[in-house]
Amino acid sequence: MSAATGPVVQAWRTDTFRRLTERLDRVLGDKTAKQFEPLKVRTVRDLMHHLPRRYFSAAELSDLSVLQPEQEVAVVAEVVESRAHNMPSGSYHTAKKPRLEARITDHRGSLTLTFFGQPRVITYWQNQLTPGARGIFAGKVREFNNQLQLAHPDFVIVDADGAMIGGAQRNAAMTTAVSSPLIGLYPQTAKLRTWTIAECARLALETLDGLEDPLPAWLREEAEVIELLPALRALHQPASRDEIDEGRDRLRFDEAFALQLTMAQRRADAAAHGAVPRPRRPGRLLDAFDARLPFTLTAGQVEVGAEIERELALDRPMQRLLQGEVGSGKTLVALRAMLTVVDAGGQAALLAPTEVLAAQHHRTITRMLGDLAQGGMLGGAEHATRVTLLTGSMTAAQKREALLQAASGEAGVVVGTHALLSTGVQFAELGLVVVDEQHRFGVEQRAALAAKATARPHVLVMTATPIPRSVAMTVFGDLETSVLREVPAGRADVGTVVVDSRRHPGWVGRAWGRIAEEVAAGRQAYVVCARISSTGSAARPGEDEVLDDGTEPLPPAAAVEDLYAELSAGPLAGVRVEVLHGQLPAEDKDAVMRRFAAGETDVLVATTVIEVGVDVPNAAVMVICDADRFGISQLHQLRGRIGRGEHPGVCLLLTAAPDGSLARERLDAVARTRDGFALAEVDLEQRREGDVLGASQSGHRSSLRLLRVLDDADVIARARDLAERCVAADPGLADAGLADTVALMERQAAGDWLERT
Which of 204, 378, 641, 755 is least enclosed by beta carbons within 10 angstroms? Predict the structure, then answer.
């Protein structure tokens, strides 16, 4: 459980963190605290970090003449008139919905208020909004029939002294809020309005009176930030915009410093734990494997391989992140590292995020090793080992056999999914943990697997998602980084074309024709959809069928099952087409992938389960339907499944997104370049860090609430330097405030992981 929802795992060493992590129900009561649940605000600290989106001054409250559409406003004005429409009269009932229109003025401009509701509610509102009544009205300005209006605004009616005399009781806090020099508008829900949030923040601040700053004075001075309690007051009860900036600077630094201090301590902790050295042993398994390679390693593979070999030979655990462009040969580098460890008497575990990818890795490694993977078997080569697969969907008998091979040491290489994390899995001598697709795993999952070794194992983390250096420094700061940019010789070029399916629907038919032509020439193709069925969820769960910048509604996304039926009966009739998606039984998914890899299937209509790890060199075409539903990194990964052999590839991005939309900008960027690192920067500029890294890494929302790794690189660098100095001077973090800072970060990360799994 997370710290916010579960029992206290450990006692806090400071009164500051004890007070900050107090549950909201103990401060605000059960009823109010439950209203904050949709916002994921559960503790006093959560509420203090739930900041207004924008602020406006009391002076802005009464100038209706400067209002603009889409502004969120709160105005003090006088009711001029109010009229009810479509109200029932006697036996007459209109088919139209009853509504109330009122006009308010500040004697310089005017604004229309519109309300819809049942007749009795309309009557109630009309009795409140009588001509001459003075009130506070808040909402978003819209334009209707060339006139500005507020639809269903929050409002209170006040007397000459500003006391509330009318309106909904839930908006009573408006009268207090508008008396402040600056008024904050908070992210809110339908039931929890910004005024209530402001009042709750005020109550929470009262409970923090006298709060001691958890950071040492010297650290705050060098970071040039104000104390914590004044910073929180400045953000929730500001007297000036300068105060707001100072408060944001403090919380921005706190985010950066907490991350960097946690990472610095992890690095120090790893260095303090000894590991079993695994030096390369000449004349054994790795040398035999290298001698059989039908190609020459790239310069990057040689360089990174040598770097890994040096670290494996040390008596402290390697902790390395290997970033590799799509098709750069990361798996080969990882396999050579695993064979190095096996030669030195250890075992290697490869953890993959999905069963499809785990099975693919098992097949690939077994095929690459040949008789070198037949240790203890008739026909096995000298120095051979065994490669074992362990996944959750295996039969009981298969699991028993895999567990025995891992526990006895018979299997030098064990490949699996989350099943490798379960308590029943034991290793004889685990020497290396390889984690594929790091953005789908958290630190705690790596640690859970590493804990299965008697000595601290070496760790190699791989990702095909290029990560900007600023993100890597922020989120993967406990790992050293290697990069593979060079693609091995023999890989074909891949052209990418954006197909506007709305303006040129005929071009979609041409896409299917292109697939048929490639199949006729002996090649294979992928067709990727954003959802499984017409009733399933889109690629971005919970997203409505609209563009992310709200420019225009999109048509429903194509579904795998529907498109498979349409293509099989139409444009691709006579072509061998199969379906692959995550809801198929594991054995069916594995069988589909085996047939496609063997060339027994021509076209695979699939969801993003093929995003990583699937290696079919004969696949030359990919059509991504509703490509606007996917992010840049995901499109880059998907495209990387083609052009892996000698045949030139073509990737067609079908979209109904109009020119100029953010979605179309993403697709155009993908079409312009195959440089994943350049695309990662574009992705980071458009989206939150948590999105770039994937939901599983960042939790329910990005842990970076204020910090932006592109804009705040200087803050991150300063925080990293100060964090390293703190850990160097105080390795055990005897300073209680620093210790609690790390404890909170670790607890949040562990809680997010436990909730997800």
Answer: 378
